[in-house]
Write a structure and sequence with these properties.
Elements lengths: L13 E3 L2 E2 H21 L4 H20 L1 E2 L2 E2 H13 L13 E6 L6 E6 L4 H15 L6
Antiparallel strand pairs: 1-2, 3-4, 5-6
Helix pairs in contact: 1-2
């Protein structure tokens, strides 16, 4: 028995004409709030009601249709809210400095400086063997 695998799962279904369910909710909610503002504030002044309706209407239209970087505007608002409301703890990670140690060879009077790269003795040993191998003349093998 074969089952059909959905192909376009990122695309929302158009339920209310050309609008998705979320777009319909944003526009209907914005229209409802604009209607309430007009009913209560227009008794004082129609101009004041229009000034209050404009930002609410634009905000609801932005929520419904505006996209930032191909993502809905609500995601940008959520990220901005989390940024401004959240804690801001900046941690500076100090890098370790390389230690310089001296080792004396019994056969020679040279002082070689070997920087300590890590806290692992095995890594230090392998690094020092690599350095000592490159410092040897090729005839002393």
């Amino acid at each position: 028995m074969r089952f059909g695998v959905p192909q376009f799962i990122e695309i929302e279904d158009k339920i209310f004409g050309p609008l998705t369910f979320k777009q319909f909710l944003y526009t209907a909610g914005g229209a409802g709030i604009c209607f309430l503002i007009y009913n209560f504030v227009s008794q004082l002044s129609t101009f004041l009601a229009i000034l209050l309706i404009m930002p609410v209407g634009l905000f609801s239209l932005a929520l419904a249709f505006y996209k930032v970087n191909e993502k809905p505007f609500i995601n940008t608002l959520e990220a901005a809210f989390r940024y401004f409301a959240g804690n801001k703890l900046y941690i500076w990670k100090k890098e370790k400095r390389m230690e310089i140690r001296t080792e004396k060879k019994e056969s020679s009077s040279e002082i070689s400086y070997v920087p300590r790269l890590s806290d692992s003795k095995l890594k230090d040993l392998s690094w020092s063997l690599d350095v000592l191998d490159t410092n040897k003349p090729k005839g002393d093998i």
